[in-house]
Amino acid sequence: MLLAFALALPRASRADESSPRSPDVADARAAFERASTSSDADAAAAGLYFLGKMDDDAFDFAAAVARYQASLARQSSGPYSARATLRREQLESHREGDYAPLVRLEQLRRDPVLSNDAAAIHALVDAAATFPPGPVRVESRLLAAEAYRGRLHRPGAEVPLLWEVVRDPYADAFAVRVAASRLLDSALDGGDVVAAERAVRELGDALDPKVAANFAHLVRRHFAHRVALAEVGLFLALLTVALARHGVRGALVGTRRILPLAAGFCVFAAGGGGLLAASYEGGSAGPFLLLGPAMLAVIVLSRAWSAVGSRSVVARVTRSALSACCLVATSFLLLERVTPQVLDGFGL
Predict the structure, then answer these.
(1) CA distance 244 to 248
(2) Is 212 within a domain?
């Protein structure tokens, strides 16, 4: 009997590459049929399991479930019992519509040509709308969404399908979280943070807590980016107005006086900070060396504004506050562009 299995198994392994009428497939099935009626429980259970596997490969899922069950009935703790139990449970949980929807899904899933064919994917999406409620409908939409996003390069087409999965009462928690995460990724990939924020609000508990936390981090950075741009823009706008009203001659005189001192201070701050950072394991002086020139530019522009601006106390305090904020904003934008990982330590 063991010799019969040794001869039949290679033939069964070639069944996927052979036609249903192939002699190899027929011979293998005949060998397993003979084994399934054996008085030896081990041989019978194995024969029934492999018959179920062949039915499974042929998309005859009802017959496969019956074979797996019969195999377990002959031997509940044999070498194939765990696989028979798992596959039987998988098939039984996807039996809606008498397995017809599952056949449609598996035919596409197992065929690399169909899996990469846009028309076949679209046909599956249309068919899924008619499937009975259940996991096959959910998995069909997830498979199509993945194909649209990746192989077919149509990321926009995946969004409606993912929302269908999230809102499907028959979708399990894992499928819902996968769909929710992909919805968030789709919005972020498109650069639409506002849409992503709306998606997070609508998804609620469907979103994985870790994914939600990472998104909150991205939102904070996006908000800080917008505030920084607004601050730099306001600073430059007010400086431009002051220069237009009072001319650039006075500004040049003022900046010329302070330039040597400002340059020395920036070199000291950047060099000292860089050396201190480099002294730590894994530290880098790069961010400080980049901030030095940015700091010098803001100081020079601030002095130019001060030289031509109003001398009132309110104006001077306002200029000082805006200049300090501009320095912080410029540093943020520079680090975000060059070494964004540094901002993680600040919660951004």
Answers:
(1) 8
(2) no
Residues 185, 257, single domain; the answer is no
Residue with tokens 């008498």: 98
Q: Supply the range of the domain harboring residue 50.
A: 2-92
The packing angle between helices 209-246 and 286-308, to 10°, is 40
Residue 297: name the closest of 236, 237, 214, 234 by CA: 236
CB-based contact 56:80 (threshold 8 Å): no
Looking at residue 181, its amino acid is S
Task: Count how many domains the chain has.
Answer: 3
Residue (of 153, 220, 163, 232) closest to 193 by Cα position: 220
* Owner of token pair 């041989």: 43
Distance CA 275, CA 264 (A): 16
Taking only the tens of pLDDT, the chain with its 348 residues reads 443 454 444 445 444 444 445 567 888 888 898 888 888 888 999 999 999 999 999 999 999 999 999 999 998 888 899 999 999 999 999 999 999 999 999 999 999 999 999 999 999 999 999 999 999 999 999 999 999 988 888 888 888 898 899 888 888 888 888 888 887 777 777 666 666 677 777 777 666 677 667 667 677 777 788 888 898 888 888 888 888 887 777 767 667 777 777 777 677 666 666 666 666 655 565 666 677 777 777 887 888 778 777 778 888 888 888 888 888 888 788 777 767 666 665 555
The number of residues making up the chain comes to 348
> How many helices (H) and strands (E) in the chain?
17, 0
- Structure tokens belonging to residue 275: 């050396």
What single-letter DSSP state applies at residue 205?
A: G
Q: In this structure, what is the dihedral angle of CA atoms 178, 179, 181, 182, given to the nearest 10 degrees?
A: 120
Domain end (from 175, 207, 239): 207
83 CA to centre of own chain: 31
Task: Dihedral sign for Cα 159, 162, 164, 166, please.
Answer: negative
